[in-house]
Design brief:
Number of domains: 1
Helix content: over 70%
Number of strands: 0
Structural class: mainly alpha
């Protein structure tokens, strides 16, 4: 994978270590976005599961009463 880095015209070319640090920062930000999206999805599924359990409980309660 090639890193796409925009160099500043008036700065010296970054060292290999600096390039690695920039790439690490980019990957870290990307993985944070993925992690946050995953947890958001999990929380949405948990909420939906609780809603469905509540609906099922109401349906079962009404069936038992014969309504």
């Amino acid at each position: 994978m090639n890193a796409v880095i925009q160099y500043d015209l008036f700065k010296e070319k970054p060292t290999e270590l600096e390039v690695c640090q920039i790439e690490i920062d980019r990957i870290s930000k990307s993985s944070d976005k993925v992690r946050k999206g995953t947890y958001a999805s999990i929380n949405e599924l948990k909420k939906r599961c609780v809603e469905l359990e509540d609906r099922l409980m109401i349906i079962e309660r009404n069936i038992c009463r014969g309504l």
